[in-house]
Write a structure and sequence with these properties.
Layout (H helix, E strand, L loop, with lengths): L1 H5 L7 E4 L4 E4 L7 H4 L5 E7 L3 E3 L4 E6 L5 E6 L4 E5 L12 E3 L6 E2 L4 E5 L1 H7 L5 E5 L8 E3 L4 E2 L5 E5 L1
Amino acid sequence: MLGKLFKKKGSNEIELFAPVDGEIVPLEEVPDPVFSEQMMGDGIAIKPSNGKVVSPVDGDIVQVFPTKHAVGVKAGNGAEILIHIGLETVALDGEGFTVRVKEGDKVKKGDPLVDIDLAVVSEKASSTVTPMLITNMNDIETLDKQDVKQVRASEDVVITIK
């Protein structure tokens, strides 16, 4: 309790960078209610322009889905970030995805997480739109989304959280 009173102001604020190059899609416009209605958390979505997914923040890999379509990263301030590559991609059972990390790995912003074969995913999934969500919103004070349209992976800040 006293730790909260004497914590340095701003010490738990972090910036999340784009995990892929592409065009921002407002979460409420993602054609899947799990994401558009924020059932798993708040965040953004990006329509990727290439197949490189990188870490949006320094942190620890806490989950790599067996189907290779999603990765969970825990940031230093405790924020739990889910990067879900495409929509209806669990059905691909890993086809079109090459995972570059494993659970327990420490990553830095910009480290490769997953390579996507966009041709395969575009053909076999309903969409390549890639949501990035904060899944533990109850632990987050504020979430500020940047007003940007086009982003470059690990170069453009898309969300600031505290």
